[in-house]
Structures are given as C-alpha cells and as structure tokens.
Design a protein that fits this description.
This protein is mainly α and 491 residues long. Helix content is 67%, strand content 3%.
Length: 491
C-alpha cells in the first residue's frame, strides 16, 4: 500500500505542476500533507516536516547567501566581460548562443556545485535570450542537462556517495567513466546545436553592424535592435557601450517565425516586458559598477570556488562569509548595502521558499517509509534472469530513481541492494557504482533538487514548463551515457 501511495503522490505532484493547476510551493506542501494523512500517519506530520527542514536548512542557507553573493558580483560588473566575449563569439546568432550556454554551463560545473553553475550561467546568458526573443526554457533545459553530466565529478556529490555506500575509491569509479561521460557531454552539445538551429530558423539571425572581423554581413533590413553590453565590445556606436544588431531570416515581413507547440518553444512569458530590465543588468553606466575593484572581486570569486572544491569549510559558511565581504568592500554606505540586499530579495525568497517546501515533500516521503517500500518493491520485481545484467539494470533504474528521490536516498538506500544482487551473479560493485551515475542528467531537474529552483527562479521560467521541455532530452542524454558505457565495456 505504501508503495502504491508513494508513486501516486509523486505522480499527482508532477501532473499538477506540469498542468499548472498548482504552484510548485503549494504542491510541495499540500500534496505530501494529504498523503501523510491518507497513510494514517497524520499525527506524525509535524515531526516529518521538521526532520525534512532540518536536513535542508544548510542548503537553504547556502542558496540564500550564494544568490546575494553572485547578485552583487553581477551588480558590480564581474561578469560583463564574459557576456561581451560570449556575444562576440555568438554574433547574436541563436544557434551559437545555445551552444555557448552548454559550453559555459559545463565549464562552470567544474566547481561541483549546481547552484553556482546555474547562477553564473543564467546571469551571463539570460540578457541575450531575453533581448533576442529566444525561448528561455531552452536556456534552462540545456544548462540543467549539461550540469547533470558534469555533476558526476568526484567532488560533485553522486560519485562520492556511491563510493561511500559501496566502500570504493571515488577515483576507481570516476576515471573509467570519463569516455562515457565525454560522449554524454558531446550529446548535450549536439542537442544544443539542434535546439539552437531550431531557434535560428524561428527567429532568424541578428548580425553586428560595424563588425570588424571581415566576415560578410547579411543583407540589411529596416529592423535594428540595440543590446547594452558595455564599452569596448566592438560596437558601431563607439564609446556608447551599445551594439546595434540587424535581424535577418525569419518571416518575409521581418518578424520571427512563430513557434509551434512543444516542437519549438515560445519565449518564456514576460520576456518582452523583462527585456529592458535584463538589458539594464549590463548597462555600462549603472551606478553599481565597481571597475576599480574588478580584480579584487575576481580574486575573491576564484578563492571562493577553490575553497568550495577543497571543502575546507562548509559551503553555507563560505557563501555567508563571501557575501559579507563582497557587500562590505563594494558598498561602504549602509543604505547602498540595504539596497543591494533588497534588490535580490525576490530571488532569495523564491528559492528559500521552494527549498523549505521541498523539505515537506522529502520529509513525508522518507518519514512514512514510502521511499523504502518503493525501492524494495522495484528491486524485488527484477527477474533473476537479469542478474548477470545488473549493471545495465542499475543504469536504467538510476534514471527514474534519482529523479523521484534524493541522491542520498538512492545511493545509500538502493544502490547497496542492487550491488548485493549483482554480486550474487558475478557483477562487481564497481560496475554497479559506475552505472548508478547514469541518471544524473535527469536528476538535476528533479523537484527534490534545490539548485533547480535557482535555475528556474532566476530565469523566471515555470517549473512545470521547464520539466515538460527538459525531461525527454535529459533521459536521452542518460541513455546515451549508458550506451557509451556498455560500448566501452565500462559497465
């Protein structure tokens, strides 16, 4: 009964948010509370919720201060040169912009923290998507999938959990998986190319006026747009910090080709009204810029990322200290400090609220025993004939399981059981551990992963919309990684 109610609870939650019948916060709180009563454990709801909140409180604190820290870095102009560089490379071409999103997300993912990756990627790329009228859900989908592949780094979390659960060395798990993960990353790049090509066909391309690289330009049209990218970006309007763009392609009347259904996603709602605000983030004349402190802020950020990787201090403490230092050094006046905190309070409140709401969901799912029963039922349903192929079974099961439950629940609760079952048929625990990493591209879009709320919150994309768009591509990427692992004899 617990197994059935557990799957029904998760299905109900996903259906309600994907059909936009309930907001994610309301669904994360009310659905598990209802099912807790249905299983006859309503009297323990308070304990389950507090246990869940206690488990996720450090994560909520980390995200709160990380948002403030990176928000300050955006305000003071730390990422402006990155955006200008990307814009030069992308040449306002939607195809290049989507590919650039995947590359940037993969590179930043080297720090091992999904929240950091999403904050940097969205901060750098969102103004381009908004200004050019591109579908923002493409940004969130590509970033989440690329980060999911890179989340398998030994310091990213899943590999360390698998190593701990099965008493293995993280290097023995990860290093042989590198070829398969490289194929997975290549799959993300191919996917981003295809999605970018679709966006280019829908929107046409925007070309620089006065570009100095000698490449032939498109035939001029009457439609010109301006993007604020800061001085020195190779603009036609020298010294203004503005880049004139001409649109080509799309429909004969000069307007973008309308998107058709899920096959070509529309720009996120509100993109038109938000474009001015997003462009203002890169306004070269904004009062929050601190050019004289650029190298200090860059050094502070690099030091913070190094400390994150080496884990000399807990991550929440690092971001708390980093935010306090950045705020104090860049904004000496108390009124300015309050203004910066207030400017980012909406993102902080949205993300922290999502995390604590997710704590209700995970607390009930774990406290009632639903997770354990669901895992036991699925594992017991595996036929004995599949025993010699337990690594493949583990890889396939990791896709839904890491989406439906936390990494801790999967790696410490299910993987050891799968390992024991495989050992009875001669399958090594190393193969099981490697196969268990396959589901990470989808895991990063799970409603139980706090970082995904940073991604959709900063991009202002509905979580259900992100889920509908991303899930199929993430599953495809996971299957590609599994196929590559089988091809190379890794799993």
């Amino acid at each position: 009964m617990l197994t059935i109610l557990g799957f029904v609870m998760i299905a109900t939650f996903l259906v309600l948010i994907m059909t936009k019948k309930m907001s994610p916060i309301a669904a994360l709180v009310l659905i598990p509370a209802l099912f807790c009563v249905l299983v006859g454990q309503g009297a323990h709801l308070g304990k389950y919720v507090l246990d869940g909140v206690g488990d996720l409180a450090p994560t909520a604190a980390m995200l709160m201060f990380a948002i403030i820290y990176f928000g300050i870095m955006i305000d003071v102009g730390l990422f402006d040169p990155i955006v200008r560089g990307i814009l030069r490379f992308c040449r306002a071409d939607p195809l290049r912009i989507v590919v650039g999103t995947a590359v940037l997300a993969a590179i930043v993912s080297l720090d091992g923290d999904g929240s950091t990756t999403f904050m940097i990627t969205v901060s750098a790329m969102l103004p381009l998507y908004r200004r050019l009228g591109m579908s923002v859900v493409v940004l969130t989908g590509v970033a989440a999938t690329a980060n999911g592949v890179m989340n398998t780094l030994p310091w990213g979390g899943p590999t360390a959990r698998a190593a701990t659960a099965l008493h293995l060395d993280a290097g023995d798990i990860f290093v042989p998986m590198i070829p398969a993960l490289a194929v997975g990353l290549l799959c993300v790049l191919v996917l981003s190319y295809a999605l970018g090509l679709r966006e280019r066909r829908r929107l046409g391309t925007l070309t620089f006026e006065g570009a100095d690289d000698g490449e032939p330009q498109s035939e001029p049209t009457d439609e010109t747009e301006t993007v604020l990218v800061g001085a020195g970006a190779g603009t036609a309007e020298a010294g203004t910090g503005r880049l004139s763009l001409r649109k080509s392609g799309g429909r004969a009347d000069g307007r973008p080709t309308p998107a058709a259904g899920d096959g070509a996603p529309q720009p996120a709602s509100g993109s038109g009204s938000d474009s001015g605000a997003e462009s203002a983030v890169l306004d070269p004349d904004r009062a929050t810029l601190r050019p004289k402190l650029y190298w200090f802020n860059a050094a502070l950020t690099v030091a913070l990322l190094v400390l994150l990787i080496t884990q000399l201090l807990p991550i929440p403490v690092l971001f708390l200290l980093g935010a306090a230092i950045a705020l104090t050094v860049n904004f000496r006046d108390m009124a300015d400090q309050k203004a910066r905190i207030a400017a980012h309070s909406e993102n902080v409140l949205n993300v922290a609220g999502m995390v604590f709401a997710a704590a209700v969901f995970t607390g009930v799912l774990t406290g009632t025993g639903m997770v354990d029963e669901m895992a036991r039922t699925v594992v017991n349903a595996i036929p004995d004939a599949l025993g010699p192929h337990m690594a493949v079974v583990t890889g396939i099961l990791s896709i839904p399981f890491t989406y439906l439950m936390s990494n801790d629940g999967f790696y410490f609760g299910i993987v050891p059981i799968l390992s024991e079952a495989g050992a009875a048929h001669g399958v090594s625990s190393l193969e099981i551990a490697r196969a268990s990493l396959v589901g990470q591209p989808l895991h990063m879009s799970s409603p139980l992963v706090p970082a995904v709320y940073v991604l959709v919150g900063m991009a202002k994309v509905e979580f259900g919309e992100h889920t509908r768009f991303t899930i199929k591509w993430a599953v495809l990427t996971s299957l590609v990684v599994l196929g590559a692992g089988l091809l190379f004899g890794i799993v």
